[in-house]
Amino acid sequence: MAKLILVGAGPGDPELITLKAIKALEKADVILYDALANETLLDHAQPAAVRRFVGKRFGCHALSQQAINDLITEYGQQYEYIVRLKGGDPFVFGRAQEEIDAAVAAGMEVAVIPGISSAFAVPASEMLPLTCRGINESFWVITGTTRSGAVSDDIALAARSTATVVLLMAMSKLETIMDIFIEAGKGETAAAIIQNGTRPDARMVTGKVKDIAFRAQHRGLGNPAVIIIGDVVNLNRALADPAVTGSGAAMAMRNAV
Ligand SMILES: C[S@@+](CC[C@H](N)C(=O)[O-])C[C@H]1O[C@@H](n2cnc3c(N)ncnc32)[C@H](O)[C@@H]1O
Of 77, 94, 113, which closes a domain? Predict the structure, then answer.
């Protein structure tokens, strides 16, 4: 019976992947991979393995989810070990369930190898903690892109809490989301945006909720990016030079290790 393995590729740095994931890549007959999975990870595959890009790149359209599901089941008829390599963790905004349902309906076995999610690895790589004793007691991870296209109601709920809020896929709604935080009285709360986290071209902009959209636009920040809102962001500024809007602390750390 063919097997589908959903494998977490980690946040971008090709060393931020699990040993189990590498073993799955070494064994794969077919690898279907996304734009956010670092392509150098394919070097772990056997030379004969089929490598199929299914993401969106350089303005080209991504395959539809249905087309990806179909590819999984088609390859499942020809090969035994199909790896679906997904950025971060497959179960964090990864549309994994749709692929699992398609594979199960086609009689395939399914397994998941968890990955290191950008939701926490990207802030950590920039020396930005998501929790700190005495500052906050939770963090929320919310998508900025819902199925309907509307901003999630969870954002307004999170804005009224003391939680650190981590937003994925939210750059296109940055101003609208910051307005929701401002309405909740959080205009002065610290905020950070990290683009291409854990990669050599990582960039970070810090500021406050009231000005982070302007700062990000001024610096030309775009996707993929993680937005972090909360008092913990100030801990990063304590480590880095507050005047530096690049990834100062992380650069210092990277150079140190
Ligand atoms: C479809 S979601 C997938 C998330 C993924 N499953 C995970 O656990 O990281 C894609 C979003 O993740 C975030 N993201 C992924 N990798 C990133 C990176 N290296 N730097 C910044 N943001 C990243 C961005 O918000 C991007 O729009």
Answer: 113
